[in-house]
Specification:
The chain is mostly helical. The protein has a domain of 52 residues. The protein is 75% helix and 0% strand. The chain has 34 helices and no strands. Helix 6 runs antiparallel to helix 7, helix 11 runs antiparallel to helix 12 and helix 29 packs antiparallel against helix 30. The longest helix has 19 residues. It starts with a helix and ends in a 6-residue tail after the last helix.
Length: 584
């Protein structure tokens, strides 16, 4: 199907213009009235097709066939609709009929060929691709397709002939020349294959790349003498050519002199003038070789360290860092190498991202801020760096700086922005505004947060809790808190929030049901005190809910445990004294 549509686009929109070309066969002569009806129905069918109303378009084209069953334009449109609706066999048969009626129309021929190709019927497609190449003799893309079809079908001579026709249009180039070289070798015609390489070199006397590729072809064909001639020709012009050096290493390996290959490789690896790209390729070769045994593997790290000292380039730091990651070196070691890489390549995405993850895992907020600032300088459109810079600043109590960072990040938001990043930025804004007592700005931030990600569970929980503390919009708060526990049913903080919202709605029985999932009544004090998820405010909430359910003894127990957990509640001691719930 995709092949059909792609080829259709290549020849222009179907049905855009009504053609008058008809085959020389017997075509019924239409009356003037029938001709008008046919033209009207055809144009209406095109309109319906372009509007996406395919059933109506099909019916109109079928009506056209009732007027003239041999109209190629109408048959073409019906064939297109059959393919579009998955009826490949019917569509192909209709395209075949269209070409029978008008075989000189390139669009019709191309679509029939494409139909056969879409059905993997290459044998049937070839004659029509060949006909298309005759109808549009300047189209090299059709000839290239012919080459591939002939090659796949084992028609080597035909493939070579098609390449000859391409070269008449475009001139000989490396791509067509190497294809012909390979095809002649497949036929066992070594002299003809070599002739292609000779012609390529003659036609490109100043292109060293051609000489190197030809030399490698000779080497692969076990003809090192001719290969060396090509390499020597390159050496005369550019003795420092990196590709030549690699080719000579292959040459020495081929002629059974591996020690010369290794000597050349090692001399280039440590030569000060070796290009960074070649040094990287050689270093990777050595790593692969040394990694084969545990004994030699130990030599890799010292080698990479010495190469980095010799050539402190992006390429060498990248090789060393990649190797350290591959062997799963310690995170600290990898981070140091990433730091080195970032020093010579401050825009390196991989280094920035991995260092950010590392410092976040270490909770090293100072370094998180440094990496994020570097990331913003390198990629000011990337929300990730604003997000984590804002997080780090908020954790370090740099509230005003965090607010500024997050607002700067939100100014970068466009239609391509990651909605989860946008949602998290608004979530942090909501938290920061809440800490400052800016309730309405906090709630507005949470509203925006949930627009970008309606399942941001932390935002759902916090928004609901802050609304309950203000005793505002408790119905909305209850819905958000319930969605949060549906998304994270084992989270004790979220369960506590839902219980607390129910409590604020004076639904004390259901509040107790949910707080019991947070603070199990049967759990001993030692277990509750040791539970790191069970913060003091959760225990205080449990006491508030129990006292309102008339369970004084258990309520006093929870309040007492909250004190032992280090509660900073101003009313907690007074609750214990008066043995009743108190509100601020």
């Amino acid at each position: 199907m995709l092949v059909i549509i792609a080829l259709l686009l290549a020849v222009g929109p179907a049905g855009a213009k009504r053609r008058k070309v008809r085959s020389a066969g017997a075509v019924p002569r239409l009356t003037a009235s029938d001709a008008r009806r046919l033209s009207y129905c055809y144009q209406e069918g095109i309109k319906q097709k372009l509007a996406g109303r395919l059933t109506e378009a099909h019916d109109l084209f079928q009506h056209c066939l009732n007027i003239n069953p041999d109209d190629p334009d109408v048959l073409y449109e019906l064939a297109y609709l059959k393919f579009y609706t998955g009826q490949d066999s019917l569509g192909t048969e209709l395209f075949r009929r269209v070409v029978e009626l008008d075989g000189s129309n390139p669009r019709y021929v191309q679509m029939l060929a494409a139909a056969y190709l879409a059905r993997n019927e290459n044998d049937k497609a070839i004659p029509y691709v060949e006909r298309l190449s005759q109808l549009q003799s300047r189209r090299s893309d059709v000839l290239y397709q012919l080459v591939e079809l002939y090659k796949a079908n084992g028609q080597t001579d035909d493939a070579i002939s098609a390449l000859d026709r391409i070269e008449l249009l475009e001139g000989r180039n490396m791509h067509t020349g190497l294809q012909k070289y390979s095809l002649y070798l497949d036929k066992g015609e070594k002299e003809s294959a070599y002739g292609v390489l000779v012609d390529l070199q003659k036609e490109n006397p100043y292109d060293l790349r051609v000489s190197l590729i030809c030399g490698r072809c000779y080497l692969e064909n076990n003809d090192p003498k001719k290969a060396l001639e090509c390499f020597e020709a390159v050496r005369e012009t550019d003795p420092e050519n990196d590709d030549l050096r690699l080719a000579m290493m292959e040459y020495y390996e081929h002629i059974g002199q591996p020690e010369r290959s290794i000597h050349l490789r090692d001399s280039l690896l440590y030569a000060p003038r070796t290009s960074p790209e070649l040094r990287r390729s050689l270093a990777n070769m050595v790593i692969q070789e040394l990694n084969a045994t545990p004994e030699t593997r130990e030599r890799i790290r010292p080698m990479l360290d010495s190469l980095v000292r010799l050539s402190p380039t992006v390429e060498m730091y990248t090789v060393r860092t990649a190797y350290l990651m591959k062997i799963q070196a310690s995170p600290d070691t990898i981070a140091l190498s990433l730091r080195d890489l970032l020093r010579v390549d401050p825009l390196n995405d991989m280094a920035l991202s991995r260092l950010l993850v590392y410092y976040l895992s270490e909770r090293d907020m100072e370094n998180v801020m440094e990496i994020c600032r570097m990331g913003i300088n390198a990629h000011p459109e990337s929300l990730m760096f604003y997000l984590y810079l804002g997080i780090a600043q908020s954790q370090l109590k740099q509230t005003e700086q965090a607010l500024e960072t997050l607002h700067n990040g939100l100014r970068q938001v466009n239609e391509n922005a990651n909605p989860e990043h946008v949602s998290e930025m608004y979530e942090i804004l909501g938290e920061l505004y809440n800490e400052q007592g800016r309730w309405q700005e906090s709630f507005a931030a949470y509203d925006s947060c949930l627009v970008y990600n309606s399942e941001n569970v932390a935002a759902l929980n916090n928004y609901a809790y802050y609304l309950s503390l203000r005793n505002e919009r408790l119905g909305e708060a209850e819905k958000m808190a319930y969605r949060a526990i549906k998304l994270a049913p084992l989270n004790k903080t979220y369960l506590d929030t839902y219980a607390w919202v129910l409590f604020m709605q004076e639904n004390h029985v259901m509040a107790k049901f949910y707080i019991d999932r947070v603070v199990p009544p049967s759990a001993p004090d030692s277990v509750l005190l040791a539970d790191e998820e069970l913060h003091a405010d959760l225990l205080e909430h449990a006491g508030d809910i129990y006292i309102q359910n008339g369970l004084e003894e258990q309520a006093l127990r929870y309040w007492s445990l909250a004190l032992q957990k280090g509660s900073e509640s101003a009313l907690l001691e007074e609750k214990l004294k008066q043995k009743k719930y108190l509100r601020e």
